[in-house]
Fold Glycosyltransferase.
Amino acid sequence: MSNDNRTRILMVGPVPPPTGGIASLMEDIIHSDLSKDYQFEVFERSAGFPPGCEGFWKRNVFRFRRFLDFYRKVSRGRYALIHIHSADPAFLGTAIMMLLARAAGAKILLHMQGTDWDWFYPDAPLFRKLYTRLGLFLPHTILVLYRLWLDNLKALGTHADVLILRNLIHKADSPHRERVEQTRDKLNLSPDDFVVVTVGTVGWRKGTFDILKAVPLVTSAEPSTKFIFVGGEEKSGEWNQLMEIVNREKLGPWVRFLGEVDREQVPVFLALGNAFLLPSYHEGMPVAILEAMRSGLAVISTRVNAIPDVIETDVSGILINPGAPQEIADAIVRLKRNPDLCLRLAETAKHSFHERFEFSQGIDALRSIYSSIILSADR
């Protein structure tokens, strides 16, 4: 039976790799039960500049062509809905895409993976505030991760419906033990090592530089602790800076930077871990933390944005302050020296995942949102 009668939706955002949360969420939605009723297509908005595309003019010509490709696709595609995923730094591009989608007569669902509200609007320069406020009048519905963003967006006077939809991920079977042990051997890890795993992009915002400052503090007290970083750089040049620190401080015996990996491999690396670490400065509701909870890991993260809504300190994890290498070290050493605490936090985190963040709980809500926008009168 042909699926040509399914309602067409264009999903706009990053395509894996990278292994980041938005890309993972998009992939989960596209391959969910929603695909029985909706025919998803993807427009990649986050691909890097091609080789040789350097300098102001070449890069802006590249951006212009991408916007033109987007407009052509929307205007010719007869889509019932454009579902645009947006993170804070990319909102000017998001606003332009929404304006083009409106010009093509399309309905828009803006899915905001907001991190730091103060950076996004109150502390923004005047021009960014201007295009932000104008952009927020373009979508028909806006999805946010938690209450602070809902209240603040409504206070700005947007005409869109603003709804909360928490990040959700699928439950999954544990990876095969043999595959996990093979990976352990490849990474030269001992079964007695206490392994701390970080998943996602690496760089300043994710607290990676702070982790490297914490490594000597941890390993001087607990030398069997190892650190695994799964993900590529967030900003150009940060990878090389991190490698320079690793070499200069002679951290090689304790750290493994793996770069981008296939998403299917992430559960294997999490299965190697005793704890999960994400000491970010700004986050929304990180999918990586949900994946760690699903895998049954004790979580160490920071008291920023929606993370305290996910992790309760000393119940399902340990919350610390951003930019605090000593706190990172203290939390890791505490878990290493107290296996019962580490196990208790891990078990509570896994239970919390199944109770609050398993994907099937949110799919009906998203189905209802899609239906409401598509059937509503245009405005």
Summary: The mean pLDDT is 92. The CA atoms of residues 90 and 292 lie 27 Å apart. The two ends are 35 Å apart (CA to CA).
